[in-house]
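wait is this the right file?? whatever heres the structure
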């Protein structure tokens, strides 16, 4: 079941104190970005935050579950989505620990043109 855009918008609003929060549709579900970093996924109208030591410390109690079959476990956030201060702390902590995204390679020039 694909996630509703209204749920994704709600999740992003709850995280908005963390900085530049955006979302992008990917494979029928959504990736949540803090700046340039993917910090969470929304799958089946559930929020899955990338696992980090700092994110776990901010959450204190975590429930781990894979966002989709075959994925590594993420932190599943269910009953604490309404706490925007907590969501911002978790996302800031998570983003701070994740590596910078790799630069995109420039498209190679096509031969013969």
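ok assuming it is, sequence goes like this
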């Amino acid at each position: 079941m694909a996630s509703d855009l209204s749920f994704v918008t709600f999740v992003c609003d709850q995280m908005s104190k963390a900085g530049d929060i955006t979302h992008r549709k990917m494979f029928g579900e959504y990736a949540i970005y803090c700046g340039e970093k993917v910090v969470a996924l929304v799958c089946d109208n559930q929020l899955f935050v990338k696992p980090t030591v700092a994110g776990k410390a901010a959450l204190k109690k975590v429930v781990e579950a894979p966002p989709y079959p075959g994925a590594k476990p993420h932190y599943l956030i269910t009953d604490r989505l309404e706490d925007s201060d907590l969501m911002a702390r978790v996302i800031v902590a998570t983003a701070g620990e994740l590596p910078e995204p790799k630069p995109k390679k420039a498209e190679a020039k096509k031969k013969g043109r």
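The longest strand covers residues 37-43. so i think its the right one actually
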